[in-house]
Write a structure and sequence with these properties.
Layout (H helix, E strand, L loop, with lengths): L9 H13 L8 H6 L13 H22 L9 H18 L4 E3 L7 E3 L7 H20 L2 H12 L6 H26 L9 H13 L17 H15 L1 H6 L8 H5 L4 H7 L14 H5 L10 H25 L15 E2 L20 H7 L3 E2 L1 H38 L7 H6 L7 H21 L1 H4 L3 H25 L1 E2 L19 E2 L10 H11 L4 H30 L4 H29 L18 H16 L1 H5 L10 H8 L1 H10 L4 H4 L3 H6 L9 H21 L1 H31 L35
Antiparallel strand pairs: 1-2, 3-4, 5-6
Helix pairs in contact: 3-4, 3-5, 3-23, 4-5, 5-22, 5-23, 6-22, 6-23, 6-24, 7-18, 7-20, 7-22, 7-23, 8-22, 9-31, 14-30, 16-20, 16-26, 18-20, 20-22, 21-22, 22-24, 30-31
GO molecular function, one term: oligopeptide transmembrane transporter activity
Protein name: Oligopeptide transporter
InterPro entries: Oligpept_transpt, OPT
Length: 784
């Protein structure tokens, strides 16, 4: 924890940095990076201080607790790293003001020493705290599939899984991703062409928080009004107080389905108008958790992506699904609810997987043939088909619109990484580098432990050693090309009204048109297909193959993005290594501990049939994870999507996805003056249907409306306010909602202080989940 000391005097370092910045050949060739990222560095700035360790570990633990806690709720909430990025600044400044400047010697100095207060809280400490916090987001919110697999094994399959086995699954997944990241940093972090545009928003926010506000501000700036921190506190407490209504006193605000009140006896009206079990036409939510539950905060999504997502949403929900259900009765759709994340039998009853499972959690083929085929609700089936379309559409779209740029940048980065160092790479050479073998040890160690686990816990994990190796090979093959896509194709657009000149003390945020739909393109569908054919009838093996083959890549790319952020902010590589590794282990242990506690202490958690109708612990995210294990693992793709499968025609959407981007690309080349043509994005349009279920149409519609208000109207007509407060408002709403949700649970729900009145019913649409096919009898529904 000792402050980093440089052998070169600070004056000499500053002079060298200034000289490097003036060399045109050494500057970053990416204009957006050159405008935003500072091209100077002071190596004497302390980084791994006592304050950084304290705030970093605290942020990591708090974020992983909140994100894990909320993933089990009916309206999950993901707390982003922006919360920690904003909150730790006043906390760090407070510690700098009150801590004594005293040297602390560890074991009499044998383990080194550190200063409790080495000076003002600086930007590098702030960055390292955010790196710790990002580990909490990666585990619990960014992609909680690892803990989802543990939840499915314990809550749905009732498997007797040991804590040690679960912990090994969690940690090896993350550390495997970290090992991939370390091995690929030479290609995806060091080259200037691998610029990770999403990090520029982070850099801009760091500078905005640390550099004084004020001055003339320039056109479009917002020099009036409260400071960002005061604004955050106002809306944090407002959000905190307000969430007592949808979170406890008045849950009906989560889904306000007025159509069900107007037609209380009409199945069709409730199917159309229900916010929870229907298409959500006219329904809305006044609950921030409901708005941001599945696509994250709409305040940080770019407007072009919102517009494309809206086009796909309208097309799927208001055109395709109604036609398939009421007009063509596709896949026997009217035997089932129009929207549900449940699985069904041919008679419209819920599918009981225990009747087709052996004691070893394999498929009992004879029992399956006797019990009958598995069916999906129409919206669920079409959602899977849209995933097929999105996968191939993403590949073709990227190849057509960005293929040339990716190829040129990749060749430049791979062939001459050492020769093409920009000023940032040269500044980073002053620090001790992390030896490659440090990462190799982590990679080999996680692979070895995973293989040992496949033997020792063979019955629990189902995945044999060759399946593990297959998953590792898949991750190895796809991580580099997907990383190149993420590092090069997200397009950052700097609005002309935003001042980013280097001689201003004030910094403003960048406006991004990120291709955020490219974050880890959904090759998990292909992974599930492959292992479903290779190991049919084994649902747990399917879950774990996805974790090791796909989720490890997700984590690797998250670590690589953070490594590039450290590169831009001139964080010593060994400090980055320490923060990421410690944060990973701490977050993994806390992640599993919180999940284990909740699974053991909340009665019937995730069991919708056994829970109280108004219980918030329905686990919609993990229900879909369970469904995926049944569809791709237990029953298998051959029975559902194969030659004789009921859903075999959905496979044609792979071909449709490959074809649809082509005319858009041809038109954009034929009419280059019509810029709007190139904004038609087939993958993002198909993303309008992503996440349903567990997301409901009302969740997505409310997200689209909120995003349009802030990222189109507010940005267009109140640009200065947007620059100054938009991201801060997003963090405040997340934080206030999260802390009130936790307070309600511990103070009221955990003590069984439940309210029961008209306003606590979530939807008031009991007929929305009824079938409409003649002769189908379901409890609580009329028979046609």
């Amino acid at each position: 924890m000792a402050s980093l000391k440089s052998p070169v005097a600070a004056e000499e370092q500053a002079a060298t940095a200034a000289a490097a910045a003036k060399g045109e050949g050494e500057r970053c060739p990416v204009e957006e990076v050159a405008l935003v990222v500072p091209e100077t560095d002071d190596p004497t700035t302390p980084v791994m201080t006592f304050r950084a360790w304290t705030l970093g570990l605290a942020s990591c633990v708090v974020l992983i607790f909140l994100n894990t806690f909320f993933t089990y709720r009916t309206q999950p909430l993901t707390i982003s790293g922006i919360l920690a990025q904003i909150l730790v600044l006043p906390a760090g400044q407070f510690m700098a003001a009150v801590l004594p400047s005293r040297e602390v010697r560890l074991l009499g100095g044998r383990l080194g020493s550190f200063n409790l207060n080495p000076g003002p809280f600086n930007i590098k400490e702030h960055v390292i705290v955010t790196i710790f916090a990002n580990c909490g987001v990666s585990y619990g919110g960014g992609d909680a599939y690892s803990i989802g697999a543990i939840t499915v094994m314990k809550a749905y399959y009732k498997q007797s899984l040991s804590f040690l086995c679960a912990l090994l699954i969690i940690l090896t997944t993350q550390i495997l991703g970290y090992g991939w990241a370390g091995m690929l940093r030479r290609y995806l972090v060091d080259p200037a062409d691998m610029w990770w545009p999403s990090n520029l928003a982070q850099v801009s926010l760091f500078r905005a928080l640390h550099e004084k506000e004020g001055g003339d501000g320039g056109k479009g700036s917002s020099s009036r009004g409260p400071t960002r921190m005061r604004f955050f506190l106002i809306f944090f407490f407002a959000s905190f107080a307000y969430y007592a209504l949808p979170g406890y006193l008045l849950p009906i605000l989560t889904f306000f389905s007025w159509a069900c009140w107007a037609w209380p006896h009409s199945i069709t009206a409730q199917q159309v108008g229900s916010g929870y079990h229907g298409l959500g036409v006219g329904a809305f939510t006044l609950d921030w958790a409901g708005i941001s539950a599945y696509h994250g905060s709409p305040l940080v999504a770019p407007w072009s992506s919102i517009a494309n997502t809206a086009a796909g949403f309208v097309m799927f929900i208001y055109l395709i699904v109604p036609l398939c259900y009421w007009k063509f009765d596709t896949f026997d759709a009217r035997k089932f609810p129009i929207f549900s994340n449940q699985l069904f039998t041919a008679s419209g009853q819920k599918y009981d997987t225990t009747k087709v499972l052996t004691r070893e959690f394999d498929l009992n083929v004879a029992a399956y043939e006797s019990y009958g085929k598995l069916y999906l609700s129409p919206l669920f089936a079409i959602s899977i088909g849209s995933g097929f379309l999105r996968f191939t559409a993403t590949i073709v779209h990227v190849a057509l619109f960005h293929g040339g740029d990716i190829w040129r940048q990749s060749r430049s980065a791979m062939s001459s990484a050492a020769a093409k160092m920009d000023v940032h790479a040269k500044l980073m050479r002053r620090y001790k580098q992390v030896p490659q073998w440090w990462f190799l040890v982590l990679l080999v160690g996680s692979v070895a432990v995973s293989l040992v686990m496949s033997f020792v816990y063979r019955e629990e994990v189902q995945l044999p050693w060759w399946g593990m190796l297959f998953a590792f090979a898949l991750a190895f093959v796809v991580t580099l090309p997907i990383g190149v896509i993420q590092a090069t194709t997200n397009q950052a657009r700097i609005h002309p009204s935003i001042d980013l000149t280097m001689n201003r003390r004030r910094r403003s945020l960048i406006v991004f048109e990120n291709l955020w739909w490219l974050q880890q393109p959904g090759y998990d569908i292909i992974a599930q297909f492959m292992i479903g054919y290779a190991l049919p009838g084994k649902p747990i093996a399917n879950l774990l193959f996805k974790i090791y083959g796909r989720i490890s890549t997700v984590h690797a790319l998250s670590f690589l993005a953070d490594l590039k952020l450290g590169h831009y902010m001139k964080i010593p590589p060994r400090c980055m290594y320490t923060a990421q590794l410690v944060g990973t282990v701490v977050a993994g242990v806390v992640n599993l501990a919180v999940a284990w506690w909740m699974l053991g202490s909340i009665d019937n958690i995730c069991d919708v049939e056994a829970l109280h109708p108004d219980s918030p612990w329905t686990c919609p995210k993990y229900r879909v994870t369970f469904d995926a294990s049944v569809i791709w693992g237990l029953i298998g793709p051959a029975r559902l999507f194969g030659r004789h499968g009921l859903y075999r025609n959905l496979v044609w959407l792979f071909l449709a996805g490959a074809v649809l981007p082509v005319p858009v690309w041809l038109l954009s080349r034929a009419f280059p003056e019509k810029k709007w043509i190139a904004l038609i994005n087939i993958p993002v349009i198909s993303y309008g249907f992503a996440g349903m279920p567990p997301a409901t149409p009302t969740n997505i519609a409310s997200w689209l409306v909120t995003g349009t208000i802030f990222n189109y109207f507010v940005f267009k007509y109140r640009k200065g306010w947007w620059q100054k407060y938009n991201y801060v408002l997003s963090a405040a709403l997340d934080a206030g909602t999260a802390f009130m949700g936790v307070l309600i649970f511990f103070a009221l729900q955990n003590a069984h202080h439940e309210l029961k009145w008209w306003g606590t019913a979530v939807d008031h649409c009991p007929l929305a989940s009824c079938p409409t096919a003649p002769g189908i009898a379901v409890k609580g529904c009329p028979v046609f």
